[in-house]
């Protein structure tokens, strides 16, 4: 428990550094970009458009009783956040070796800053997502999505997703210092994870035996929670909400403890 308190204290103590790291990432990402941060809004729309054409028109994918565009957009923005944030967090320690080598800094600051940076972009993607939901009132898609009181629970779902992503990022960042092959392995893991997460399809199309396995996927839980609110105007069950938090906090604690145990040895490997 003391270790967790020390870690949280360091986040506060080094908040200025985290801010500078996030600002630097924004400058690097959008350097010489004409549209700049507008790409954060355009990218999910373009991806949704392409995937909607491919899966709904060519492969005839659909989810009965729901607006497929909103269903698809919800899956895209949430999985993309997890994928990008955990990927950047994984490489954050190795990439910042020159800074780590000069001055003492708690190394878990770097994965945390990456997850926050991508989190800000994620918040920007919510703008077109909400726009698609509003446009469903005007005939965009076959079904209308009704804005309801349960939208107040969406921040809870997103925070749980953030905690889970940060935990995975800490674990992979730690492993990648000692095993550089992790950079390639994790890319393959993300591809498999993407197909095991119902981003563009309904889990109902799978055999029951596979459904049981796929439902163990934490990302399935987060996507389903958000979709229940947006598409079905329903509150996720208390069991689902408890599992969201358990996955998030549990993974984060494992990541923090592993990272803290190994971080003093990083200097010999990076």
Description:
With 270 residues, this protein is mostly helical. It has one domain. The chain is 72% helix and 0% strand. The two termini are 29 Å apart.
Query: Could you estimate the helical fraction of the residues in percent?
Result: over 70%
Order of helices and strands: HHHHHHHHHHH
Strand content: under 5%
Q: Which spans of ≥5 residues are poorly predicted at pLDDT below 50?
A: none
Content-based structural category: mainly alpha
* Largest pleated sheet: none
**What is the radius of gyration computed over CA atoms, rounded to a whole number of angstroms?**
19 Å
Number of helices, counting only DSSP H or I runs of 4 residues or more: 11
State the end-to-end CA separation: 29 Å
User: What's the β-strand tally?
Assistant: 0
Total domains, how many?
Answer: 1
Shape: globular
- What is the typical, i.e. mean, pLDDT? 85
Sum this structure up briefly.
The chain has 270 residues and is an all-alpha fold.
Observed structural traits:
270 residues; 11 helices
Detail the topology: elements first, then pairings.
Layout: H1 2-13, H2 15-29, H3 38-58, H4 68-95, H5 97-100, H6 109-135, H7 154-178, H8 182-196, H9 208-214, H10 218-232, H11 238-262
């Amino acid at each position: 428990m003391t270790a967790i308190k020390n870690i949280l204290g360091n986040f506060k103590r080094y908040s200025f550094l985290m801010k500078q790291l996030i600002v630097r990432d924004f400058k690097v990402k959008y350097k010489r970009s004409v549209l700049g941060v507008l790409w954060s809004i355009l990218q999910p729309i373009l991806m949704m458009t392409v995937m909607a054409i491919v899966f709904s028109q060519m492969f005839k994918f659909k989810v009965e009783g729901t607006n497929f565009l909103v269903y698809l957009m919800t899956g895209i923005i949430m999985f993309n956040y997890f994928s990008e944030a955990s990927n950047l967090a994984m490489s954050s320690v190795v990439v910042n070796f020159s800074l780590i080598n000069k001055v003492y800094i708690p190394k878990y600051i770097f994965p945390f800053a990456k997850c926050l940076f991508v989190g800000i972009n994620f918040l920007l993607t919510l703008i077109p997502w909400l726009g698609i939901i509003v446009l469903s009132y005007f005939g965009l898609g076959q079904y209308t999505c009704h804005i309801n009181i349960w939208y107040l629970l969406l921040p809870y779902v997103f925070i749980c997703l953030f905690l889970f992503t940060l935990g995975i990022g800490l674990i992979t960042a730690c492993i990648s210092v000692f095993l550089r092959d992790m950079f390639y392995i994790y890319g393959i893991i993300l591809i498999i994870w993407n197909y095991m997460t119902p981003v563009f399809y309904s889990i109902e199309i799978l055999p029951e035996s596979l459904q049981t396995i796929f439902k163990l996927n934490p990302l399935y839980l987060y996507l389903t929670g958000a979709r229940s609110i947006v598409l079905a105007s329903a509150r996720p069950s208390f069991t689902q909400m408890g599992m969201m938090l358990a996955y998030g906090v549990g993974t984060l604690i494992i990541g923090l403890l592993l990272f803290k145990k190994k971080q003093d040895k990083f200097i010999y490997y990076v």
